[in-house]
């Protein structure tokens, strides 16, 4: 009975989310049909502008999301995590660089990275190496590089700065977290997990697969697509409203200052929780208003830590670790971006 109740509750939530998403898209794709001669009222030009900006962001981003979710699903299902940490150097500091390189190889977005890192740590990956992978993988991969290139093809400084900063800062962040925690266990373990962990250690037994890998890949890709799609649409909609209705004089005052513009765009990245495979298109829509440095801060900070990732981190890791992690990532990204702006490097 409980299984059926859980199934219907889960199905109801998914169906409601899909229905709302469908209604939202239909309304925005057909907003121009709701004009005076058809619906008896006139849509203001400002809302038509919102519609244009919104659709532009969504249409450009969807192909990269589709590519990213399928590559991510294939890696998550077919690549064994224990093969990754097996070849890492035993020295804690020497392992930081290979961890960042691994992040550049595996195109996993931040929507899936937290549970993956949790599994890697459970299989024996050191905490600080998992941290490097956590912050590097959502940015340092070919899919994100390609989307950033197409979004900023007229100014490749953004692409180079995003990839370079992500690589260097991920190593620094991992090193700081190693100094603070010395790889002490920071995971949350349930009673069932602790019992299962002991059984595996004693017998080597593992749980059987409930479905074949092909079905797992499809299910994972579909779930991830609809999860990311909702955040993308929300982000695109807020960005369109932001660009259309916010006071331009206030925006110019905020966007032209190295400190305020960087802080605002980092906060914006945290709240929007965009997929790293599509956030470049949202950032590009602010290109005429905010400094290049603040856009880079948006593109580096968001994939490392955002609202939805924070919720998952608190679910899987101890609160002290999460607070320290957020504080370190925020401080390091802000200081690095502001310093590069003051030095006129970006």
Task: Provide a concise account of the structure shown.
InterPro entries: DUF318, UPF0718. One of its GO terms (cellular component) is plasma membrane. The protein has 17 helices and no strands.
Structure description:
Belongs to the UPF0718 family. With 346 residues, the protein is mainly alpha-helical. The chain has one domain (45-203, 211-342). Helices cover 75% and strands 0% of the residues. It contains 17 helices and no strands. α6 packs antiparallel against α7. It is globular and about 65 Å long.
Low-confidence sequence ranges: 195-202
Cα distance spanning the termini: 60 Å
Average pLDDT figure: 78
Strand content: under 5%
Helix content: over 70%
Helix/strand structural class: mainly alpha
Number of strands: 0
Please state the CA-atom Rg, rounded to the nearest Å.
22 Å
Give the H and E element order: HHHHHHHHHHHHHHHHH
State the helix count.
17
Overall geometric form: globular
Mind summarizing the main beta sheet? none
Number of domains: 1
List keywords for this structure.
DUF318, 346 residues, mainly alpha
SSE layout and pairings?
Blueprint: H1 2-29, H2 36-39, H3 45-78, H4 82-86, H5 96-105, H6 110-122, H7 127-136, H8 142-151, H9 157-181, H10 191-203, H11 213-245, H12 248-255, H13 258-272, H14 279-284, H15 292-304, H16 307-316, H17 319-342
Helix pairs in contact: 3-8, 3-11, 5-7, 5-9, 6-7, 6-16, 7-9, 9-15, 9-17, 13-15, 13-17, 15-17
């Amino acid at each position: 009975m409980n299984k059926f109740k859980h199934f219907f509750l889960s199905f109801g939530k998914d169906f409601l989310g899909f229905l709302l998403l469908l209604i939202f898209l239909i309304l925005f794709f057909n907003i121009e049909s709701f004009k005076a001669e058809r619906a008896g009222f006139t849509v203001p030009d400002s809302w038509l502008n919102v519609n244009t900006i919104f659709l532009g962001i969504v249409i450009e981003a969807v192909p990269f999301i589709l590519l990213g979710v399928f590559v991510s699903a294939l890696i998550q299902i077919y690549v064994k995590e224990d093969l990754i940490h097996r070849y890492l150097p035993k020295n804690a500091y020497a392992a930081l660089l290979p961890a960042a390189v691994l992040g550049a190889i595996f195109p996993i977005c931040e929507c899936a990275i937290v549970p993956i890192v949790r599994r890697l740590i459970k299989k024996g990956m050191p905490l600080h190496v998992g941290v490097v992978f956590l912050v590097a993988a959502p940015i340092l991969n070919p899919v994100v590089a390609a989307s950033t290139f197409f979004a900023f093809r007229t100014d490749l400084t953004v692409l180079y700065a995003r990839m370079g900063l992500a690589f260097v800062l991920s190593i620094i962040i991992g090193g700081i977290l190693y100094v603070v925690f010395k790889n002490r266990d920071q995971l949350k373990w349930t009673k069932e997990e602790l019992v299962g962990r002991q059984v595996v250690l004693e017998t080597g037994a593992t749980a059987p697969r409930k479905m074949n890998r092909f079905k797992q890949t499809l299910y994972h890709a579909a779930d991830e697509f609809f999860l990311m799609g909702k955040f993308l649409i929300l982000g695109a909609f807020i960005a369109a409203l932001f660009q259309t209705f916010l006071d331009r004089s206030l925006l110019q005052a905020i966007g032209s200052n190295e400190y305020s513009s960087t802080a605002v765009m980092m906060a914006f990245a945290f709240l929007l929780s965009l997929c790293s495979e599509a956030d470049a298109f949202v950032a590009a829509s602010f290109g005429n208003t905010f400094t290049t440095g603040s856009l880079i801060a948006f593109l580096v900070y968001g994939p490392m830590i955002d609202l939805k990732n924070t919720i998952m981190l608190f679910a899987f890791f101890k609160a002290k670790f999460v607070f320290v992690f957020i504080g370190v990532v925020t401080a390091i990204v802000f200081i690095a971006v502001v310093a590069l702006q003051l030095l006129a490097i970006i």
